[in-house]
Each structure stands twice: as structure tokens, then as C-alpha cells.
Design goal:
Layout lengths: L8 E4 L2 E4 L9 E4 L2 H9 L2 H8 L9 E8 L6 E7 L6 E2 L11 E10 H4 L3 H11 L15 H10 L1 H6 L5 H5 L17 H7 L12 E10 L2 H7 L5 E8 L2 H21 L12 E2 L3 H36 L3 H4 L2 E7 L1 E10 L2 E10 L2 E2 L18 E4 L7 E6 L1 H6 L3 E2 L9 H8 L4 H7 L3 E4 L4 H4 L8 H10 L3 E14 L1
Parallel strand pairs: 3-4, 18-19
Antiparallel strand pairs: 1-2, 2-3, 4-5, 5-13, 6-10, 7-9, 7-11, 8-9, 8-19, 12-13, 14-17, 15-16, 16-19
The chain binds one DNA strand of 6 nucleotides through helix 10.
DNA sequence: ATGTTC
């Protein structure tokens, strides 16, 4: 064990706390088992969570989820809430470059025996339907400047009006696929240009489309409410806001560097650049970030339509005959103004979730009406050779984590480290031996994304389950994967 | 994550 210059104390079976020291204004709380904790401390994510605890107006604690790993400024797997009435800030580093990176889960009436014999064809079809890889474009026509601005304001609903998917998909999407307050007038010309040709594209890195079999159901009642049955086939789409969101983040990091000094804010890491909520820099960033978020929801909506079109071709049946229905679409890179209880008082806070997923419990008004009795679906993608999870928000999330949970397995190996480890191996065959057919675009994608590059997703979701933040509903295992 | 170093 490496020597620490701080003390960490176990305050419950799955929560570890660092009391404030130096200029920290709140403690750090890490959700983890002892093994996950060790990884979080070793790669610097723990130190990053301590840095976040220094920021102005942070409320209660700087939180790290069990999948936390090192990121730009804030850890990926970090959650922090800021109070505008106490000098609270918004920081682009607390959202991430890929604004509204997220996951969409689609259920079907297909079973493994319908799909397994044609899995090669299905994977090839999905790969052809959706442009994959860095710089991918031309999934649909290049949008005009005006169309992109409309899409930025209205998100997924705008794409449904253009003929991609159905209104009920939007009802089963976080925020119904559009954040309020999106204002394209604050966007740079370069952001608009980068966004125009990329709607309906997957991107690269950990972004994927996946064919899964629902192998285990832990909670029959909730699974039924979500329309997910043991043995059925489901589809996942994981991607974000492409070059558009990346450009928005880059543009506003520059704005925020200036704002940090303008408002006399002191942060322990330049990458925590931020502006006080209510100030023009903060409000403009939130308006731009909402555009990025809405683009990502529109992007996943178009990709869903392209996936459905491909499946209709393969099976020679239409969407209804295949029983294809959207379970939910979650975001895991965003900041939102939300009402939360703080010491018995309801307060409006800016909740940053970076590599963290909203997980509202039963009864919360933001949960779609047909799920409100059970709680919000939470989608946790794992690595491409192991499993993904469907969870449901629990009461503990509102009490402890600003209605948030983990977002995935979380990297345990750098991209470079993974490539080195994969040298000389035939990963396509290794995955085929595990029953996973894979297609991919980038030269190094398969190596960088190999299962060993990720933490144990079972351990990650178990921590949040045992801590009472989210409950396990179903475990999905991949049989076909398309990687960017 | 990213027209992977405007």
C-alpha cells in the first residue's frame, strides 16, 4: 500500500471518507469495496475528488462512484453539487468533453434462438447502417445551420419529427430528450460546422452498439415494468455529442480560464476552471452545454432509427412485429439544476455528473409516468466481453448522492497500456470464443477496449446495490458488438 | 471523448 498524505476512514461497509484538510471545504466520499478503492486511489482519481472538494459553493461532499478513474480535472465517476446562493460554480471539467455521453437500451420480443444463428449478419448490418469511428459523418443528410440550431433547442423530439423513430421513444428518454435553456446563439461557428454532418454517427473509443441477451433477472416486478424478460434480446447504443460537444467544451474551457481569474477563484488544478452560477460565463456555458446534450439525445434517436431499419431488413419484419421498444435513455456526462433536500430544506443546486448516472427513485416526478411506481431505469454498460446491467434508482440516491449512481465498468488500464497488453493477441477470436461477434472501425479500438482494460462491472454495481443507491434489475450479456 | 497537436 502506498503512503498517503491524508487519512481515509471507512464510514459504512461501502463508503470511505476523507475529512476536509487544507483548503478543502467539504469531505470526500468514495463508494467502493476495498479493492476498487485501491484502484481509485492509485490512478489519482481520489486526489482529483479531493481537488473538487476545494471548489467554491460545493455542498456536503465531493463524491466518487466505484467506477471512478482519472479524468480532465474532475474524476470520471465524480458527482458534485454546487449552491448558487453560496458562491457555487459550474465547471466544464465536471461534465467532460463528451457532453451527454449516454446509453440507450431497447428491448425486443426476439429470443436468443432467433438471433444467434444470424448474429454475424446482424453485426455487419448495424456496422453498415451507422457510420463508426473518429470523424465519422454522413449517416443522414448534412443538416443546415438552421436545422442544427432547431435540433440543439429541441433534441430528440426534433429528429422524430424528421422521421427518425417514434414519440414513445422520447417519452422513455431522460429529460424527454431535451434540456430546457438550450441557446444556440452562444455557440461558435466551428461548433455548428462540426455538428452539421455528424448526426446519427457512433464515434469511437468506448462508444458502441451491442446485441445482448438478458441472462439474469434480479427483480421480476421491476423488470416487468421496464418490459425486459429473461432470455430476450436487447440492444444498447452508447455514444454522445461527437465533435459538436467536444468543440463546445473546448470553447468554454477558454472562457472559464479567464472567468476563474476574473472572479478571483482559487482552484488547486487549472483544469477545474469554473464560473459562479448566475454570472454570464456560467449561464452561457449552461446554455451551450444544453445544446450539446440535446444533440446527443438527437444523435442516439437517429441511431436507434438506423438500428431498427437494419433489424427490419435482417428479419423481414417491421418494428412492431419484432416487439422493439425503448426501455430508456440515460445521460452520464452533464450538469443540471435540480431540487435537492439539504439539511431539511429544499435547495436548487447545480449537480455535476461526470461519468455518473442520474438514478431517481420511485415517486420522483422526473421519472416517466409508466415507471414512476418502481423508479428510474439506470443503464450501466460493462466491457464488451462481460456484461451490462439494468438497475433502478432507490431512495438512498436522493439521501446521499444527489440522485446519482455509477456509469459503467470504468477503465482500469490506460489506452496505451491496453494496446501493449494486447500485442500479438487475436482479440476477435478471443471474443468469438466467449460467444461475442465483433465488428470495429479504428486500428487500435479493439485493443484499447479489451475486457481486461476495464474494472469488474459486477463489483461496481454490487457496491451501489449494497449501499442502497441503486438496485440490480437485470444482467445483460453481449453476443454481438460494433465498436467505433 | 476528439477532424486523437489550431
Amino acid at each position: 500500500m502506498s503512503r498517503r498524505d491524508y487519512e481515509i476512514r471507512q464510514i459504512s461497509p461501502f463508503i470511505w471518507q476523507v475529512e476536509p484538510f487544507g483548503e478543502m471545504s467539504v469531505p470526500v466520499r468514495i463508494y467502493a469495496d476495498s479493492r476498487l478503492l485501491e484502484g481509485i486511489e492509485q490512478d489519482g482519481a481520489g486526489q482529483q475528488a479531493m481537488n473538487v472538494a476545494h471548489m467554491p459553493g460545493i455542498v456536503r461532499a465531493s463524491l466518487a462512484m466505484p467506477d471512478a478513474h482519472w479524468g480532465y480535472g474532475f474524476p470520471i465517476g465524480g458527482v458534485a453539487a454546487f449552491d448558487p446562493e453560496r458562491g457555487g460554480v459550474v465547471s466544464p471539467g465536471g461534465i467532460g468533453f463528451d457532453i451527454n455521453c449516454g446509453v440507450r437500451l431497447v428491448a425486443s420480443d426476439l429470443v436468443e434462438d432467433d438471433v444467434k444463428p444470424r448474429i454475424d449478419k446482424i453485426v455487419r448490418t448495424l456496422y453498415q447502417q451507422v457510420p463508426c469511428g473518429v470523424g465519422s459523418s454522413k449517416a443522414i443528410r448534412k443538416l443546415s445551420d438552421k436545422e442544427l440550431r432547431n435540433l440543439s433547442r429541441r433534441g430528440a423530439a426534433w429528429t422524430v419529427e424528421q422521421g427518425f423513430g417514434r414519440p414513445e421513444d422520447v417519452e422513455h428518454t431522460e429529460e424527454e430528450g431535451a434540456l430546457d435553456g438550450a441557446d444556440p446563439s452562444v455557440l461558435s461557428a466551428r461548433a455548428i460546422e462540426r455538428g452539421q454532418p455528424q448526426v446519427g454517427t457512433l464515434g469511437s473509443g468506448n462508444h458502441f452498439m451491442e446485441v445482448d441477451v438478458v441472462r439474469e433477472v434480479y427483480d421480476e416486478e421491476v423488470a416487468e415494468a421496464f418490459g425486459v424478460a429473461r432470455g430476450s434480446v436487447a440492444f444498447q447504443i452508447h455514444c454522445g455529442s461527437r465533435g459538436f460537444g467536444h468543440q463546445i467544451c473546448s470553447d468554454f474551457l477558454k472562457t472559464m480560464q479567464k472567468a476563474t481569474s476574473k472572479y478571483g477563484i482559487s482552484v488547486p488544478d487549472k483544469q477545474l476552471a469554473c464560473a459562479p452560477l448566475g454570472r454570464p460565463e456560467a449561464e452561457q456555458y449552461l446554455a451551450a452545454m444544453a445544446c450539446g446534450a440535446n444533440y446527443a439525445w438527437a444523435n442516439r434517436q437517429v441511431i436507434l432509427a438506423l438500428v431498427v431499419e437494419g433489424l427490419e431488413q435482417v428479419f423481414g419484419k417491421d418494428r412492431d412485429a419484432l416487439g422493439i421498444r425503448q426501455v430508456y435513455d440515460v445521460c452520464h456526462n452533464i450538469a443540471k439544476m435540480e431540487e435537492h433536500d439539504v439539511d431539511g430544506q429544499s435547495r436548487r443546486l447545480c449537480v455535476h455528473r461526470k461519468g455518473a448516472t442520474r438514478a431517481f427513485p420511485a415517486g420522483h416526478p422526473a421519472v416517466p409516468e409508466d415507471y414512476r411506481e418502481v423508479g428510474q431505469p439506470v443503464l450501466i454498460p460493462g466491457d464488451m466481453g462481460t456484461a451490462s446491467y439494468l438497475l433502478v434508482g432507490a431512495d438512498g440516491a436522493m439521501d446521499e448522492t444527489w440522485g446519482s449512481t455509477c456509469h459503467g465498468a470504468g477503465r482500469v488500464m490506460s489506452r496505451k497500456g491496453a494496446k501493449k497488453k494486447a500485442g500479438g493477441r487475436n482479440l476477435k477470436k478471443e471474443l468469438a470464443d466467449r460467444g461475442v461477434t465483433v465488428a470495429w472501425e479504428g486500428r487500435s479500438t479493439l485493443a484499447e477496449e479489451m475486457p481486461e482494460a476495464y474494472k469488474d462491472v459486477d463489483a461496481v454495481v454490487s457496491v451501489m446495490h449494497e449501499a442502497g443507491i441503486t438496485r440490480k434489475v437485470a444482467r445483460l450479456e453481449p453476443i454481438g458488438v460494433v465498436k467505433g
